[in-house]
Amino acid sequence: MSYTSPSSTGSISFTPVSNAGGTATITVTVNDGSATSNTVTRTFTTTVNRLPTITTIANQTIGVDRATSPLAFTIADAETAASSLTVTGASSNTSLVPNNRIALGGTGANRTVTVTPLAGQTGIANITVTVSDGSASAARTFQLDVQPKPAPPSNLQVIAATP
Hints:
It is a single chain. It is built from no helices and ten strands. It is mainly beta and 163 residues long. The chain has a domain at 53-147: Immunoglobulin-like (Sandwich), CATH 2.60.40. Strand 1 and strand 2 (37-46) form a beta hairpin. The N and C termini lie far apart (100 Å).
């Protein structure tokens, strides 16, 4: 980087590469036209808040009037302890699964989500589980398919009965 200021004061600015962090050493040499120059070296450290992570949660199919088993997933963050991360759940179909019927459990990095649809309801809902460190977030979505009870067979015949 080279910079020439047209006046006796000036400023230098730079933008780090997106989503990168680390240390940059920048040396500024000031020359007033005489034989000697004044040199100043400054070191700058940029800290980047990396996104937290959350593992995949598999799609689920359950019968009507049932809940999922506790579905395990893992969360992490490079800068924040897992115990300090916030985890939330949301449903795309609140007529089937209201948000308050998404129960989050576990501690630290090892978490669970259990989904309990409304009684008698069938259909599909996309359940999104989000982890946040307060500044950045990451989410995983899985599909919940709630199936009706199978119809009983309608063509049963009694072949023989023994007393």
